[in-house]
Amino acid sequence: MSLTLEPMGAAQFASWMNHVMQWYAQGKVDAGSWPEEGAFERARRENAEQLPDGVQTPGNHFFVGTVDGREVGFLWLHSDPDQSPPTATIEAIEVLESERGQGLGRALLEAAEGWCADHSIATLRLHVFGRNTAAINLYESAGFEATNVLMAKTIR
């Protein structure tokens, strides 16, 4: 099995980004960072600020992961070559639900690392919600280390 990254087209970007904003908003609600009311609208506003030119916003790279021509997942990288050392951040990574459990999450991570190496980017970063233990385990097993930890306690 060999995973390939293909550039994401504008139509697919619009559809996928709507899905990502729903996921992100729910993650913020579940983490206790945002109230449920208005969360999706807030995510869309933040996204519009981050990506004023959509799929064409400089420094952002959107990919479809394919295996044998079949879509299996998606990857959004943001690169900042002016940072020293040059860095990239995985803004979103997703394996299609029907394709999970086959090692494709790791393959997408490896493809992201390969893209970084090809673009002389020395550091790859990501954010993961604390309750997403499956993703945390995958990232740690792939060599990612915690660099910041934000913790909260509900006071009643």
From TrEMBL:
<protein>
    <submittedName>
        <fullName>GNAT family N-acetyltransferase</fullName>
    </submittedName>
</protein>
<dbReference type="Pfam" id="PF00583">
    <property type="entry name" value="Acetyltransf_1"/>
</dbReference>
<dbReference type="InterPro" id="IPR000182">
    <property type="entry name" value="GNAT_dom"/>
</dbReference>
<keyword id="KW-0808">Transferase</keyword>
<feature type="domain" description="N-acetyltransferase">
    <location>
        <begin position="3"/>
        <end position="156"/>
    </location>
</feature>
<dbReference type="InterPro" id="IPR016181">
    <property type="entry name" value="Acyl_CoA_acyltransferase"/>
</dbReference>
<dbReference type="InterPro" id="IPR050832">
    <property type="entry name" value="Bact_Acetyltransf"/>
</dbReference>
<keyword id="KW-0012">Acyltransferase</keyword>
<dbReference type="GO" id="GO:0016747">
    <property type="term" value="F:acyltransferase activity, transferring groups other than amino-acyl groups"/>
</dbReference>
